[in-house]
Amino acid sequence: MNRLAAQIQRVLVALDASPHSLAALEAAAEVATRLQVPLWGLFVEDIRLLQVARLAFSQEIGRFSAVRRQLDSEQLERQLRVQAKRARRTFTLVAKRAAVVSEFQVTRGAVGPEILAAVESTDVLVLGQAGWSEIRAKQLGSTARTALATPPSLMLIVQVGGHLGAPVQIVYDGSPAAEKCLLLAESFARAEQWLTVLLLDGGAVELSALHAQVQQVLPHRVNIEYRRLTQSNVSRLLQLVEVKGTGLLIMPLKMVSLAADALLTLLPQIKTPVLLVR
User: Fold this and answer.
1) Ramachandran class of 66: left when φ > 0, alpha when ψ lies in -120 to 50, beta otherwise
2) What CA dihedral angle connects 244, 250, 253 and 258, to 10 degrees?
3) CA torsion through residues 191, 194, 200, 205, sign
4) What pTM value is reported for the model?
């Protein structure tokens, strides 16, 4: 285990009732296994839902019946308790199967801030790409958006169908965060597996310098395939990643060559789990 992986203390996964949350849990368990650290599950009872339910004019529409009815705060409390119980049961089963040390916690508050308050500098935060709403299934979930606004050091975004198998791909731009990406990639790659490094193309001289930096960071036993990211935009990045298929993409959270809102465009379109490094 390299020096960066050795600093990680735990994997924190945020859970709700959505399929994306379950995918995040499976991925989080695998990360905890790979890094040999504890797995921590967190379920947040959304206080905003409870506050809305207490308003006299609040109504809900049945998902299948389309019938309007008054929101019942007591019923919502019961539903949240049931969801938390289910999340705990599923978490326990997955953690036991992965044979990792684990802990599960239920808190109450605003979901995004509660999750970020629980993250420490040495944690990996794992989130589902979207929440429970099917209407917004093709958009980045509100919790992930909140986390991107005040990001932790390491954040893994997972959607349904995503897995952490081969190939492992890294976006490298020479930044300190990109060097961390390389070190983490070494921890996730299995023996004899090839790593694909996407080098930002700044011309022949810069490409040569980036190539040398990668060789210095990664041990010689790691098999490396280089690909040039000739157009540093979301469309080109998606093309390169999809050529290799789903696996794991590790990239700096902030890249000078990409617009500030690029991740909000990229993440909803990509099937590959994305580990963002700050």
Assistant:
1) left
2) -30
3) positive
4) 0.86
